[in-house]
Automatic annotation (TrEMBL):
SUPFAM superfamilies: Cysteine proteinases. PROSITE patterns: USP_2, USP_3. Keywords: Hydrolase. One of its GO terms (biological process) is protein deubiquitination. Pfam families: UCH. Residues 1-215 form the USP domain. This is UBP16 hydrolase. Gene3D superfamilies: Cysteine proteinases. The keyword Isomerase does not apply. GO terms for molecular function: cysteine-type deubiquitinase activity. The gene is Usp16_1. It comes from the Eukaryota. One of its GO terms (cellular component) is nucleus.
Amino acid sequence: EVSTDDPETAFCTLANREELNPEEDSIHHCLYQFTRNETLTETNKLLCDVCTQRHCGPKNNIKSEKKYVYTNAKKQMLISLAPPILTLHLKRFQHAGFNLQKVNRHIKFPEVIDLAPFCTAKCKNVAEGNTKVLYSLYGVVEHSGTMRSGHYTAYVKMRAMTNHLSDLVLRGQSQASETEPVKGQWFHISDTHVQPVSVSKVLSSQAYLLFYERLL
């Protein structure tokens, strides 16, 4: 889809990214890096249809790929529609020569996360004037072991039944005004073993998948 947004606002976000100073090995740093502004130059230049038509005339007159015009450009991936359920999948492997190696270091993640710095200024389902898009953690999947073998366990928050989540999923409505995490008891699940755990235990886990529900 070709975007014709004003260049001055095309790379604007709901909240000021310049004020962010994300800590290394944190989910905020991962999101910041994933949504950073990139410059496309040299062999990564963008094929520009407008520039090509200006230089060569209508497309039907272009007989050789050599006549296409490539130009420097900016690229940025931002969230255009805030989901009711946010699932973050961490890439826990890296190349070590010809082999894959698991990344075991701890990545910090919060109970409540604000996606506004990573959303486009014209995010479709955020009310005008809102500068926060808040999510509350309710599930974590953890993997122990190596790239060849291991075991998956989960942390899940049990909370009181509300209509909030169904409103988000079915109607895309956000009625909440809280900025605190949804109250509930955390449990660690490993096969048939289930036991209650503290929030600190959950936040110290080596997350592989993170599940958040939208608050605001």
